[in-house]
Amino acid sequence: MDAYFAAVEMRDEPRLRTVPMAVGSSAMLSTSNYLARRFGVRAAMPGFIAKKLCPQLEVVPGSFDSYRRESVVGVS
Q: Would you identify the CATH topology of the domain 4-63?
């Protein structure tokens, strides 16, 4: 579940699979994909700092209802 939120976003928006991306906002990131982590982007990092480390980072807002639905499907 390390990059679960990022994995759901990349599944729903395939173009995000090939770019550094994170889920969150300029205030705080929930997670990032492995491409972004190569630049030092981490969970609980302010998004504005992450953008300094990785200027091409795409930050998407979280779809927490979607994550919740997917986790229920995965468990059942």
A: MutS, DNA mismatch repair protein, domain I (3.40.1170)
